[in-house]
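Researcher: Let's do a round of design. I'm pasting the structure tokens now; please hold your answer until I've finished.
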């Protein structure tokens, strides 16, 4: 009996270690709810890019140039970047001399977006940054010429909802840019084989799926939405953004906030000009 309490304590420590290692670090809090996951990314933001240096070194060759080749017929594409993180896609695209489009970039973490704002300071006329916590996306159907979600589907609770939303807001003929987590990542519960991932995209309606080896933990994925609608041509965020409270589009823009003309809900800007698109801002 004298050993029972110490043994129980050790077992509890082992269980706690396993929980922290698997649920928080390995699966990045995806099963713990969006608010806790946001808190975790805020904690990790300062060092986040250090672990991405191997892949970011190839951003121009593997992302920017191939994407612009796919969008060569669109001089001013409107691009959605879901889970933008520290703004890697926006940075590599904006640094290209032939990029004349605009990017609307969303992430759940304000700290991540603050780093993105610093990295993208020279290009803010081309990029809108929004802190946004949960799906569905606050945009009408067929709003974008291209939609992107890189290295993020595997750390979302389910892949189905984000893929459905990306398909919905992409115009017919538009480009999907995403990634497939490889077997090397070890996330067995979230890894889909190349064939299975292609089938998943086709099940949601995408076609012309191209999966290309990228770096150790991710493959690059391109796909297309069937059809051939005209380019979006609407590059004003507030001509697209739907109010979370009333689902209407119509805004009064002010330097520090935007006001929904339909219901009066106000959304504020951070000091870095990040739109905090949440009704509850008690934190």
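Researcher: That's everything. Go ahead.
Model: Designed sequence:
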């Amino acid at each position: 009996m004298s050993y029972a309490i110490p043994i129980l304590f050790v077992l509890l420590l082992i269980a706690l270690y396993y929980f922290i290692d698997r649920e928080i670090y390995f699966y990045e809090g995806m099963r713990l709810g969006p608010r806790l996951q946001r808190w975790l990314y805020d904690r990790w933001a300062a060092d986040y890019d250090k672990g991405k240096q191997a892949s970011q070194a190839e951003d121009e060759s593997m992302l920017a140039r191939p994407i612009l080749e796919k969008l060569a017929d669109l001089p001013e594409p409107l691009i959605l970047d879901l889970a933008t993180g520290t703004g890697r896609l926006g940075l590599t695209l904006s640094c290209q001399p032939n990029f004349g489009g605009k990017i609307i970039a969303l992430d759940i973490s304000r700290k991540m977006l603050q780093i993105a704002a610093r990295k993208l300071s020279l290009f803010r006329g081309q990029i809108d940054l929004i802190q946004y916590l949960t799906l569905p996306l606050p945009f009408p159907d067929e709003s974008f010429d291209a939609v992107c979600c890189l290295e993020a589907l595997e750390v979302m609770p389910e892949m189905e909802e984000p893929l459905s939303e990306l398909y919905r807001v992409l115009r017919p003929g538009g480009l999907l840019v995403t990634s497939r987590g490889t077997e090397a990542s070890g996330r067995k519960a979230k890894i889909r084989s190349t064939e299975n991932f292609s089938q998943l995209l086709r099940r949601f309606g995408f076609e012309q799926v191209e999966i290309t080896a990228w770096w150790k933990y991710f493959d690059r994925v391109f796909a297309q939405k069937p059809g051939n609608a005209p380019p979006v041509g609407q590059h004003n965020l507030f001509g697209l953004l739907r109010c979370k409270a009333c689902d209407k589009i119509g805004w009064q823009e002010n330097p520090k906030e935007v006001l929904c003309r339909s219901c009066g809900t106000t959304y504020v800007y951070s000091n870095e000009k990040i739109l905090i698109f949440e009704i509850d801002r008690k934190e």
